Amino acid sequence: MRLASAQTKETCKMDQSVQERLHLALELQRRAYEAERMPSYAVRRDRLQRLLAMTRKHGEALATAMARDFGHRARQESLLADVFTVESGTRHAIRCLRRWMKPRRVSTPLHFMPGRNVLMRQPLGVVGIVAPWNYPYYLAMEPAVAALAAGNRVLIKPSELSPATSELMARIVAEYFAPEEMQVITGDAEVGKAFTQLPLDHLFFTGSTAVGRHVAQAAARNLTPCTLELGGKSPALVDRSCNLELTASRLAFGKLFNAGQTCVAPDYLLVPRELVEPLTQKILAEMRRMYPAIAGNPDYSSIATPRHHARLQSLMADAAAKGARVLRSHEGEQPQDRRIVPALLLDVSSDMTVMQEEIFGPLLPVIGYERVDDAIAHINRGERPLALYWFGQDGAAREHAMSQTHAGGVTINDCLWHLGQEEQPFGGVGASGMGSYHGEWGFRTFSKEKPIFLQSRFAGTKLFQPPYGATFERLLGLLKRIA
Fold it and tell me: Which of 77, 180, 229, 358 is catalytic?
């Protein structure tokens, strides 16, 4: 009894310490924001240039840290997906910053002239970013780019499942930024939970749909606006008009990049029934071409944690036990680390766990269809996905599929690449998320677009003031005719 009581007191002390640490960080940034509510172009540009310099200087160190966190991660994938993308997004923000900051003149209805309408974009204040483990630098810093460009202060909570990268981020951010500008707060899941409960001015979360629901509930208690970048089962719809070789190559790349641990990786294929076998064999051949071996291959990434590795093995075992055909790309290979041999799953059914959960690994179920509308109906029966992929050459078929499905974003005849477009918004819909970012959409997410109406000294508003009478009635009638 005494031991339990002592443990409870110790836990309470730890909880109190975490809360104090988080609130001190928030209060520091809040005071700094109050002292500088509208940072100048020069200040914002300087912050973005420091973030760019930080990324360039520490790119190789970040790739090494990510490899340590994953057990193994291809250096090239880290440099492309985590480092280059942040550099590219930051350069884009620097180029466009002055235009984004400029107040916007918007149209004014005739009956409100000679007044005029203006939109002023103001920083929200202190922004919180919760980043996941699969692309730990990119998914922390890409929203931070937008938040800094918009003039905000930034607190970042990286994943406890990528400790080496998280600790490195904390160190290099402290090297380039004052804590009242941007700060990385490391810690376990309890720290993350407390972080989402802070009275922030905006909360940006990237992660699973299940955790996203809890984050939204925590934010709602403070009426904190939030952006949720989630996931789901993103389909790839293959049309009969597709080029099989091209489709196979690009599907294999999209599925195996980062060993499938990508929120927009194709989660399952919908293929015309007569093309299932030939396309399946071509995909397996492309997987072997890209990765001649799995064990010890420096180009092929590991599954990030033992728990996720065990989960993927369980998904395969469950599918096989329920009648799925498991076709491995490299039969006979049994890696001794956390690398998983890629596998295509045929003859899958809805009662298999692999068809109920986001896979997040190098497993790819293949579903045959007779009519394209049957495939579209299958997509629409599920939650709205974060990504959708369509492969084919028939323009009318493509437009039909696009108009009849919902998704956060789409790439045609390839996978993943819509994620890197700075001139397009990125974000989910429904269970795959809410809100968007990238480029100007990120700037707007972290800004309050304040509408301002500038009334003219020549406005005849006195005619609408009481006492009301015949003149008011005539003017109201006129407005009804011209509005």
Answer: 229
Residue 20 CB-density burial (10 A; 0-12 exposed, 13-18 middle, 19+ buried): exposed
Measuring CA to CA, how many Å separate 193 from each of 44, 187, 188, 312, 325?
Answer: 30, 10, 9, 26, 40
Residue 371: its pLDDT value, please?
Answer: 97
- What's the pLDDT tens digit per position in 329-342? 999 888 989 999 99
* Residue 263 designated active-site: yes
Catalytic-labelled residue, pool 180, 181, 242, 263: 263
For residue 44, give its domain range.
20-230+442-449
- pLDDT at 3 (0 to 100): 46
- Is 229 noted as a catalytic residue in this protein? yes
Size of the chain in residues: 483
pTM, entire model: 0.93
Q: Report the pLDDT value the prediction gives residue 1, as an integer from 0 to 100.
A: 47
Instruction: Name the packing angle between helices 372-381 and 395-404 (round to 10°).
Output: 20
Note whether residue 111 is domain-resident: yes
**CATH code for the domain of 320:** 3.40.309.10
